Amino acid sequence: MNPSPYVLHRRLPKLLAAFCVPWLLLSLPGTLTSGDWRLMTLPVEALLLAGVLMALPLAARGWLVWPVALVAVVAGGLQILDQGFIYFLGRPLNPVLDAGLVPRLWELMQGALGLAITALVAALLVAGLAALLLALHWSVAVFANTRAPLAGMVVAVLAAVAWQAGGPVTAHTSPTVRAIAERGVEMIGERRAFEAELAQDGFVARLPEQPLARLEGHDVLVVFIESYGRQAIDQARYFDTVEPALEQLQDSVESRGFAMKSGWSEAPIIGGQSWLAHATLLSGLWIDNQIRYQVLAQAEPAMLSHVFAEAGWHNALVMPAITRAWPEKTFMGFEEHLFADDLGYTGKPYNWVTMPDQYTLYAFEERTRTPEAPPLFATLALISSHAPWTPIPPVIEDWSEIGDGAIFSQWADDGDPPEVLWLDPERVRQQYTLSIDYVLRTLAGYVEEMRERPFLMIALGDHEAGAIVAGADAPRDVPVHLIASERELLEPFADWEYRQGAFPDAEGRVPPMDRFRDFLVEQYSR
What's the confidence (pLDDT) of residue 35? Predict the structure, then answer.
C-alpha cells in the first residue's frame, strides 16, 4: 500500500538528502576539474535510480541495495579517475593501459612526498572509498524503503523527458563509463596490431651503404628535457620567464662559435610516461601506450642506437631518475648505462628529482664524454623540470665547484614542500616556469663548458607538462633545439622548417617524433 501524501511529504527531506549523495558523486568531479559550475546539473542516472527503486515491488528491492551501491561507487570512481587523467595528463583513462601505472604513481608520490605521507594518502583513499560506499548504501536504502511506485514512475519519466529535451538534466557518467569500456576493449587488440606493424618496419633493409658517415668523428647527443612543451613558449605567463633563458642559451651557443636551429616535434604522449617518447624517437615507431612499449621491448627492434653502434659509435644512456633494476634497458641498444647510482651524486635529492640537471651534465662530461673517449651517441634525460617542481636550485656559475654534488644539498629543502605547493594550482604553474628556466639556463651553461669535441646535440621536450600547466586542449608539440659544432650539420633540418636561433617558428612544421630515426639516417649517410 502506498503511503499517504502526508507521509511521503514527511519523508521528502530524507529523500532529498539521500539524493545529494549520488548527485555530488556524479556531478562534482567534472565541475572541480573544469571550474565550470554549470556542470552541477541533475544527473539523469541518479534520478532514474531513485525513481526506479521507489517504483519497484517491495520484494525486488532488498537484494538490490548493496549491488546498486557498489555499481554506483565503481561508476563514480571511474568518472573521477577519468577527470583526473584529463586534468593532470591531458588524456582520458584507459583501464587496460593505466592499471600498470599504479606502481609508478606510488614511486612518484613516495619520491615527492615521502613514504609516510604517501602511505597516509593511500589509507585516506581507502577510507574515503569505504565511506563513499556506506553513504551510497544509505542513499540507495532510503529510496528502496520508500514505497511510492507512482511517484517513482513520475520521477523516472520526467527525468528521461527532461534529459532528451536538453534541460537541466544531463548524463555524464554513463557516456564516460561506456567510453572507458570501449577504450579498454580497443586496447585488447592493440598488441596484435602493433606486432604486425613492427614486422613490416623494414628499417634494416633500407639502411644506406655508409650509415651516418656525415657524422663521423662527432658526438651525437639526444637530450630530453622533462615536461618541456609548446605552452612554455606559446603562453605569455610562461614565456615572460622562458624568453630570457632561451636568449641566454642562444648567446652561449654563439659565444662558442656553434650553430643553432629550433623547431617543433609532435610527442606521442602528454603529461607523463616519458619512456614512451624516448622509445618513439629511438625506434622510429609511434609508441603512445604501454602495450606498444612492451611489445617493442620484447621484439629486438632496430633502434637508432643500434645503427650508431654498428657504425662505430660508443653508446651511452644517462637516466638519473632510474633508481632500481630496469630490465627494458637491454632492448634500447646502449653499451653504457648511467643511472642514479652510477653518477656519483652525494648530495640530497630534490623530492622526486634524484639530482639537479647541472650535476647530470657535469657527471656526463667528466665520466663519459672525456677527451680520450671515442665518438659518442648518448641519450640523456634532464629531470629537474619534472613534477612536483620544488625545490629548484640555482645554476652554479663555476662548474669546477660541482664535484660530487654535495654542494647542491644546501638548496634541497628550500621553499614549500609539494604537499603545500600543490594546494595552489597557480603556484604550481609558477614553479613549473621556474623549473624550465633552470633547465634552459643549465643547458646554456653546459654549452659554455663543453669540451672541444665535434658534436651534434638534439635537445627537445619529451612531452607537454599536462593539463594543470598547459590547459585541457594543449597540443602534443614540444620544442626542439639543435646545436652543432659546425653550421652545415644543421642544414638538413631546413626541410623541417627549423630556423636559426633558439626560438621556433610559431607556424613551422611539426614533424612527429618517430621521424627522427629515419631522418637522421637518411640525411647523414652516404
Answer: 56
User: What 3-state DSSP class applies to 170?
Assistant: strand
Cell numbers describing residue 14 = 530524507
The three grid cell numbers given for residue 346, joined into one nine-digit string: 652525494
478: three-class secondary structure by DSSP: strand
Residue 144 · residue 64 · CB < 8 Å = yes
- The answer to whether 306 and 379 are in contact (CB under 8 A) is no
CB–CB of 299/197 below 8 Å?
no
For residues 520 and 525, what is the distance between their CA atoms, to the nearest angstrom? 8
Using CA atoms, how far apart are residues 361 and 412, in angstroms rounded to an integer?
A: 18
Give the Cβ contact number of residue 403 at 10 Å.
Answer: 14
Torsion-angle region of residue 492: left (phi > 0), alpha (psi -120 to 50) or beta? alpha
114 φψ region: left (φ > 0), alpha (ψ -120 to 50), beta (else) = left
Amino acid present at 294: Q
Taking every pair of C-alpha atoms in the chain, what is the biggest distance, in angstroms? 94
Rounded Cα gap, residues 523 and 478, in angstroms? 22
Which pTM does this prediction carry?
Answer: 0.77
Pick the CATH number of 208-313+325-523 from 3.50.50.60, 3.30.559.70, 3.40.50.261, 3.40.720.10: 3.40.720.10
For 3-57, write each residue's pLDDT tens digit. Answer: 444 455 566 777 778 777 777 777 776 665 555 555 567 787 777 777 777 777 7
